[in-house]
Automatic annotation (TrEMBL):
Domain of life, source organism: Bacteria
Protein family according to the UniProt entry: Belongs to the CapA family.
Domain called Capsule synthesis protein CapA: residue spans: 66-315
A Pfam short name: PGA_cap
PROSITE patterns in the cross-refs: PROKAR_LIPOPROTEIN (PS51257)
Source species: Nocardioides ganghwensis
Protein name in the entry: CapA family protein
Biased amino acid composition, Pro residues: 38-51
Alphabetical list of InterPro entries matching this protein: Capsule_synth_CapA (IPR019079), CW_Biosynth-Accessory (IPR052169), Metallo-depent_PP-like (IPR029052)
Length: 381
């Protein structure tokens, strides 16, 4: 499996670096093919008891990590002109993103040059490599591109997309793109961010319904030897990617493109997959695609934010940034745990940009967030 390009350096004064050595360590473990049958454990006799009791694992004292989660971003309509100055393109939201140790969002557009709009698609989004520069300048560390717009201009553009992602990873500040790659292994490869010794792994995948005329993610899926997006309609590879990420990371985030557009409640499929991901070792499960905010809360040992809605988008409406404080595990067998949450309430204006909500608008945003949890089956933070 090829190593995803990565870079190290301070971002917005934070403690975040992306560790190339850790990426290589993870990738050396390897990946299974989605065509492989599920692994069924073979019953065996218990191992013999050693004469001396094993020593308890040494305690770790890695500091808490803050992870900011935002929703869908594109540069269409009134946002197109913002890329003339990438350094300030998302300026109103930069402080909320850059304040976290690791900030993650979904880039819902084709990036690069060349290609043609996909025939039959109602909406095709396009942006030049400056889009990645804009995300990095705004304080975003990891951008997911496993979505139904990543290849809006066809596979002919994909080579330039991957080149732009490589350049962004080497940038200052760096941005790591996940969920798209030169083959299926690279598409599912995680971004690994080191925060004062605590490693955060971010895996991205698309599990939205495949519709050849509107959402052709299944056609765009990366495969062995074929570039594309991380497609998880069959979730086995995604679950395995989460397990492998957990072998080298302290905190595992699964960022998904999922759900039903226009719905404020998660679908049954979302709820089932979220539970499977948490059991597989995901400490945080988040996503977008519905273009509506959906509820967040605790699910077993994990934390789930079903829908982060739009963030920088040509349709005005409510939005925000969800920042989680996560305590890394204290033993090798332990789990990370979200210990606090913070919501930055915002509204997308006519210019497509999110700006902080204040006063009664901020109160309404907090109340809406609480109300959205009622149909999720999640527990309050």
């Amino acid at each position: 499996m090829p190593v995803r390009r990565s870079a190290a350096g301070a971002v917005g004064g934070r403690r975040t670096t992306v560790a190339a050595g850790l990426v290589a360590t993870l990738l050396l473990v390897g990946c299974s093919s989605p065509a492989d049958p599920p692994v069924v454990p073979t019953p065996s006799a218990p191992p013999p008891v050693e004469p001396s009791a094993p020593q308890a694992p040494a305690a770790r004292r890695a500091p808490p990590v803050t992870i900011a989660l935002a929703g869908d971003i594109h540069f269409e309509g009134p946002l197109t002109a913002r890329l003339r100055d990438p350094a300030t393109a998302l300026a109103p939201a930069s402080r909320a993103l850059a304040a976290a140790d690791v900030a993650i969002a979904n880039l819902e557009t084709s990036v690069g040059t060349g290609g043609r709009p996909e025939p039959g698609k109602r909406y095709t989004f396009s942006a030049g490599p400056a889009a990645l520069t804009a995300l990095a300048a705004a304080g975003i560390d990891v951008a997911g591109m496993a979505n139904n717009h990543a290849l809006d201009f066809g596979r002919a553009r994909l080579a330039s997309t991957l080149r732009a992602a490589e350049s962004a990873a080497d940038g200052d500040p760096p941005l790591i793109v996940v969920g798209v790659g030169a083959d299926v292994e690279q598409a599912f490869a995680p971004a690994l961010s080191d925060v004062d010794g605590a490693v955060v792994a971010t895996v991205a995948a698309s599990v939205a319904d495949a519709d050849p005329t509107a959402d052709p993610t299944g056609q765009w899926a990366a495969a062995p030897g074929r570039p594309g997006t991380a497609d998880a309609m069959d979730p086995r590879r995604l679950l395995e990617a989460v397990r492998r990420a957990g072998a080298v990371a302290d905190v595992v985030v699964a960022y998904l493109h999922w759900g039903v557009q226009g719905e404020t409640c998660p679908s049954t499929a979302q709820r089932r997959l979220a539970a499977r991901l948490v059991r597989a070792g995901a400490d945080v499960v988040a996503g977008s695609h519905a273009h509506e905010l959906q509820g967040d809360g605790r699910l077993g040992a994990g934390y789930v934010a079903y829908g982060l809605g739009n963030f920088a988008w040509y349709s005005p409406g409510p939005t925000g940034v969800l920042t989680l404080t996560v305590r890394p595990p204290t033993t090798p067998a332990g789990r990370a745990r979200v210990t606090a949450t913070r919501w930055w309430p915002a509204t997308i204006g006519a210019d497509g940009l999110p700006r902080a909500a204040t006063g009664s608008a901020a109160t309404a945003s907090a109340e809406r967030r609480t109300a959205l949890r009622s149909c999720t089956g999640l527990r309050a933070p």
